[in-house]
Amino acid sequence: xxxxxxxxxxxxxxxxxxxxxxxxxxxxxxxxxxxxxxxxxxxxxxxxxxxxxxxxxxxxxxxxxxxxxxxxxxxxxxxxxxxxxxxxxxxxxxxxxxxxxxxxxxxxxxxxxxxxxxxxxxxxxxxxxxxxxxxxxxxxxxxxxxxxxxxxxxxxxxxxxxxxxxxxxxxxxxxxxxxxxxxxxxxxxxxxxxxx
Length: 196
Fold this sequence. Notes:
- This protein has one domain (39-181): Glutaredoxin, CATH 3.40.30.10.
- It is 38% helix and 19% strand.
- It has 5 helices and 8 strands.
- The protein has a 6-stranded mixed β-sheet.
- Helix 2 links the parallel strand 4 and strand 5 (98-104).
- The N and C termini lie far apart (69 Å).
């Protein structure tokens, strides 16, 4: 009897795994572009959050760079899968005008975050999130939620939940190949793309 139940359990688990793999493969094989067209991008809201050293970090400090903004937590299983990918992306692309910026959403703050960052060798900047930052980004209903932000400070892609590694690689590469913002434009002039 036990072996019959075990066999049914194994078959059920195999069917579920196959179904999940097929859904994942279909998602990876989709023809959706890695990033939105520039005309379809909205401005990424600025924020002021503190890093582990107590320094204020603003998203606007990263203007001119491609940014992967990741809302995550130490207790989040899918976050733990993505973080090594982000460590690798940071290592490979930091000299190309790319930065990962992690926004930790742990309730106990640095008490959990600092040991996690040290243990996992996180090589990018981490800040502590707050309710205002979450609301500015549409509520962030799930962790992880990641935003790929172009050099002009506009959101080029959003990934809610665990996304395929290839989506991040392709999106970052597409944004890094885009020309940097026109630094000759007077910063006092309004950006016509942001007109209401």
